[in-house]
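queue> pop job 88
queue> type: inverse folding (structure -> sequence)
queue> payload:
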């Protein structure tokens, strides 16, 4: 569905993405792993057109989108919902206004009643009801993530990009957010990309995993394939924080890297 081909991106002479390629097949939930600063957020911003790659291609189905006009890109953007790393809510707006933000930007002809109905529907999809008139400052971290997610759902996207959806949340809230990612995947039949360092989250939601290192993809596969790849950079990352059901598996690769 989304195909990232040989992307490069540097900032002030520092190469962040260095020939990165990645496949996001329709219907899958792809966890993107990589150390802090490895360019995961940059990758999501390049996919949505918020940042331009220096070279390479991004394909959405059979359209190459990295050099589209603003008008054509806006059509693609509506198919891609993004939950930003910081949730990126506007503090001066109510929850309802935050969720409606993109709708009011792109669909000025919609009546207030129509907008309100969509806002209510999206908030209920993320299990938040009755918070429409609150401001972001009155919400917990987990609720803010849900509001950011409700906003990302406004246009019924075909793909949702989650940037660190569980970072900074307590373990119970993390589990709830992971469950929500899985529920939305089921209910809405969306394709999902989840950027995370949280291995509990990655193993809980992912049907595919990819690891980025030095600006390139170094591993890709289903979770059961990933734990069988004999690559020290990957295994060091994955096994420090993987859930017990993974760590307790009798697997020669795991045993080697866990020093058992
Ligand atoms: N707009 C920008 N201008 C200059 N440098 C940037 C910009 N955006 C990102 N960078 C740099 O690109 C590198 C990758 O950043 P990015 O935010 O993608 O990392 P990340 O993998 O998401 O890290 P984290 O896990 O901490 O969120 C960092 O060194 C960052 O400083
Ligand atoms: Mg990031």
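queue> result:
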């Amino acid at each position: 569905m989304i195909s990232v081909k040989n992307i490069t991106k540097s900032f002030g002479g520092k190469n962040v993405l260095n020939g990165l390629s990645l496949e996001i097949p329709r219907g899958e939930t792809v966890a993107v792993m990589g150390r802090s600063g490895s360019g995961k957020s940059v990758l999501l911003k390049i996919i949505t057109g918020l940042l331009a790659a220096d070279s390479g291609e991004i394909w959405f189905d059979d359209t190459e989108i990295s050099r589209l006009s603003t008008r054509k890109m806006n059509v693609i953007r509506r198919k891609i919902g993004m939950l930003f790393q910081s949730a990126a809510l506007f503090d001066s707006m109510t929850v309802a206004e935050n969720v409606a933000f993109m709708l009011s930007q792109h669909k000025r002809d919609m009546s207030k009643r129509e907008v309100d109905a969509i806002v209510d529907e999206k908030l209920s999809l993320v299990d938040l009801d009755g918070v429409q008139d609150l401001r972001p400052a009155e919400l917990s971290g987990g609720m803010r993530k849900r509001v950011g997610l409700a906003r990302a759902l406004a246009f019924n996207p075909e793909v949702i990009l989650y940037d660190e959806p569980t970072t900074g949340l307590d373990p119970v809230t993390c589990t709830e957010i992971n469950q929500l990612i899985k529920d939305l995947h089921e209910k809405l039949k969306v394709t999902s990309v989840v950027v995370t360092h949280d291995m509990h989250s990655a193993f809980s939601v992912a049907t595919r995993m990819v690891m980025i290192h030095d600006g390139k993809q170094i591993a890709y596969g289903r979770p059961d394939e990933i734990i069988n790849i004999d690559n020290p950079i990957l295994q060091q990352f994955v096994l420090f924080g993987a859930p017990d059901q993974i760590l307790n598996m009798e697997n020669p690769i795991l045993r080697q890297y866990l020093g058992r």
